[in-house]
Design goal:
290 residues, alpha/beta, Arc Repressor Mutant, subunit A, D-Maltodextrin-Binding Protein, domain 2, 3 domains, five-stranded mixed beta sheet, LysR family transcriptional regulator, transcription regulation, LysR_HTH_N, LTTR, transcription
Length: 290
């Protein structure tokens, strides 16, 4: 009987981290390994899988079809591993309530599955999530209504830390062309909004006229207006619907927009165990090189 081959969990974690960061040198630094050690891990992974996982693309590497398939499996394997470790690794079960605020960009994509796995790993702990704009979430953390919140923009609180920096982009429908003479039709939240402020500042600094043609309290409304071709909006690509596209500012005749910080706020300087555990998971998931 032939023994089944098994993937090494540490090797899979290096593989997933490198793909997420877009650089195995940065993955090595994040994981506390040397680049030669990471190279050996990738060779081991290729040997165990029996497949070519990468091809050269310019100065970097791109996943092959086999690499893409393995990446999807590796993410699922690591999620199950981490869920089991969370459940079994504590000396006592976490219980009580954990209240978290999240931005709309992640509410329909990456964060709900994470919260679901966290809840399954700690069945005695009840998680309450609130989706809202950054200023309101920060205020809720400072009042003690939330234990933790993830926000975009420059809002600061007594206990906050920088997670990542993301480029701000112009987003439009696939076939939309920005008018060259008329004011730029802007689709955005009403103030206060870090993204709207970045767009208005960039347009004003270049003398380009603009007009807000659509406002909505929710991100779904903005995406619907962009899809309908009413104008352009400004966000990061996190959570951007696949049928929309980010514009090249120079080709579209628009100014560059800079970047925005992703921040994590906690109500306490030393959070309770459930908050601390979820904070560490969120930091691992959301961090990207700036």
């Amino acid at each position: 009987m032939v023994s089944p081959r098994n993937f090494d969990m540490d090797v899979l974690r290096t593989f997933v981290t490198g793909v997420r960061f877009g650089s195995f040198a940065k993955a090595a630094e994040a994981l506390g390994r040397t680049p030669p050690a990471v190279s050996l891990q990738l060779k081991k992974l290729a040997d165990v899988s029996g497949q070519t996982l990468f091809i050269k693309q310019g100065r970097g590497l791109a996943l092959t079809d086999a690499g893409e398939a393995l990446y999807d499996y590796a993410v699922r394997i690591l999620e199950l591993n981490d869920e089991a470790m969370m459940m079994l690794g504590s000396s006592r079960a976490l219980d009580g309530w954990l209240r978290i605020g999240i931005p709309q960009d992640f509410a329909e994509t990456s964060l709900p599955p994470v919260l679901g796995r966290f809840s399954r790993a700690h069945p005695k702990l009840r998680v309450e999530a609130r989706v809202d704009r950054g200023a309101k979430l920060v205020a809720a953390v400072e009042r003690g209504d939330l234990d933790m919140a993830v926000t975009w923009g420059g809002q600061r609180s007594a206990h906050c830390q920088h997670i990542a920096t993301h480029p701000i982009v112009w987003i439009a429908a696939a076939d939309y062309e920005v008018p060259s003479e008329d004011p730029v039709p802007l689709i955005a939240f009403d103030p206060p909004c870090s993204f709207r402020a970045a767009a208005v500042e960039a347009l004003s600094s270049t003398g380009r006229d603009w007009r807000q043609v659509f406002a909505s309290p929710g991100l779904a409304g903005l995406w619907a207006a962009v899809t309908a071709g009413l104008g352009v909006t400004i966000r990061t690509t996190a959570g951007m619907p696949p049928h929309l596209r980010s514009l090249d500012p120079e080709r579209a005749g628009l100014p560059a927009l800079g970047s925005v910080d992703l921040m994590l706020h906690t109500a306490e300087a030393v959070p309770a165990a459930p908050v601390s555990r979820l904070r560490d998971i969120l930091l691992e998931m959301l961090v990207t090189p700036s």
